[in-house]
Amino acid sequence: MKFFFCLPPPASSLPFFLLSFALTASAQVSKNAVRTTVNGIDLVVLKTGVQEVVTLRGSLAAGDSLSPDTNPALADLTAGLLDKGTTNHDKFAISQMLGDVGASISFNSTASSLNINAHCLRKDLPLVIGLISEQLRTPAFTPEEFAKFKKQFAGRLKRASDDTDFRAGDTFSRSIYPIGHPNRQVPVKELLAGSDKTTLEEVKAFHKKYYGPATLRLVLVGDVDVAAAQGEVTKSFAGWTGGEVPPHPAKATNVDAPRDQTVFMPDKTNVTVMWGQTTGLRYGEPDTLALRVGTAILGSGFTGRLMANVRDKEGLTYGIGSLVTNDTFVDGDWRIQANFAPGLLEKGIDSTKRQLLAWYQSGVTDAELAQRKTDLAGSYKVGLSTTGGMAGTILTTLNRDLDLSFIDQYPARVAALTTAQVNGAIKKHLDPEKMVLIKAGTVTGAPTAK
């Protein structure tokens, strides 16, 4: 269940050491990463200078959006049982095998994919790949573990429902995305009802239909021998078939939802505000980078306009920001998210609105764009400096249906952005008059969102 990679700048404005790193590190990705198809699996292996450590990131098209309307919890329940034992090893044996060598494997389900995360020493890579294969291919699906996990799943949902951030985001998704769009979240009541009635046979059928090499991607980064890694994947996944490539959904259309909604939650010390709309853009399409850089100028970190004014100057919040998100697999959305004390809510919204309208109407300045490009160079360096960051970036790039050369080209693409392009993207893809405002928390005097 769903419960930011922004990138760097112009050669002229980059400190030399950052420019050198960005150009060198990114160029090495497409040059040195080896991408092959192994037993139907899209496999990328990148050997780096790190010693002994290997990070694995993977994805499989078995996310929440593939659950049937009659059983919206099915993908989550299936994913949640992967680490509960296999037909060869129970969960305690797997935990001990991993613990003995300091390795880790985890799975989680999001709107569009099952995600795989693993970390180990080089010598233990065969063990980890073998266990991942075992967990994906032959989960035990025992009645006892199924019953336990259904209770855990329900408990997590109920706890999440008491969180203002979760409730704001949950309501926001249904207010901007139409029925059938992967980014539209299912109401908690429906998930709970679906989970309660789900049978183990339905879980097994979902697994049989969607789990297979057809949509599996694996990325290995670190102290890894390419040929050896390919050999281990070949051996561990030999004979596995299946999986289903989901149809690409239509882009989001307008939703007939109130523009101002309140989710009343008693006895909360803060109100979460979420304000935004769909963009109609999937990452990689024209205007993607321009809109993201412009959005970062408005509200990314302490140097963004929102923090500088709403927080630092006016003292109305501890946290506020803006971002473009949910656009890796499908078209995504643009949003401002903030938290205000109930007594400062209206002042906080008014201040945020002033900043939003000034940014939208007047645009960003040349100086702001130049500074943001420099800031993004540092973010890029940090993002690619660890095996986890590099593996995650590669996997995300593939899931965006982009070639690995995009990672190489990113610094130059951002460096080439002009102020006119950024301001043009803002005006083209956003409209404050069409944005939806969600308030979740102890708010009185407004209609409650359903």
Characterize this entry briefly.
The protein is α+β, with helices and mostly antiparallel strands and 450 residues long.
Task: Report on this structure.
- This protein is an alpha+beta fold and 450 residues long.
- It has 2 domains: 11-236, 2-Layer Sandwich (Cytochrome Bc1 Complex, Chain A, domain 1); 260-441, 2-Layer Sandwich (Cytochrome Bc1 Complex, Chain A, domain 1).
- It is 45% helix and 16% strand.
- It contains 16 helices and 11 strands.
- The chain has helices at residues 16-32, 74-80, 91-101, 125-137, 143-160, 164-176, 188-197, 200-210, 226-236, 288-299, 305-313, 345-362, 366-383, 387-399, 405-415, 419-429, and strands spanning 34-38, 41-47, 53-60, 104-109, 114-121, 217-222, 260-264, 271-278, 319-325, 333-340, 436-441.
- The strands form 2 sheets. The chain has a 6-stranded mixed sheet with strand order 1-2-6-3-5-4, sandwiched between helices.
- It is globular and about 60 Å long.
- It starts with 15 loop residues before the first helix and ends in a 9-residue tail after the last strand.
Number of domains: 2
Strand percentage: 15-25%
Order of helices and strands: HEEEHHEEHHHHHEHEEHHEEHHHHHE
**Helical percent range?**
40-55%
Low-confidence runs: 2-27
Specify the CATH homologous superfamily of the largest domain. Metalloenzyme, LuxS/M16 peptidase-like
Write down how many β-strands occur, each being a DSSP E stretch of 2 or more residues: 11
Distance between the termini: 21 Å
Shape: globular
The radius of gyration is 23 Å
Q: How can the largest sheet be summarized? A: 6 strands, mixed
Structural class: alpha+beta
CATH architecture of the largest domain: 2-Layer Sandwich
What CATH first level of the largest domain would be assigned? Alpha Beta
- Find the CATH topology of the largest domain: Cytochrome Bc1 Complex, Chain A, domain 1
Strand order of the largest sheet: 1-2-6-3-5-4
Mean pLDDT, all residues = 91
Number of helices: 16
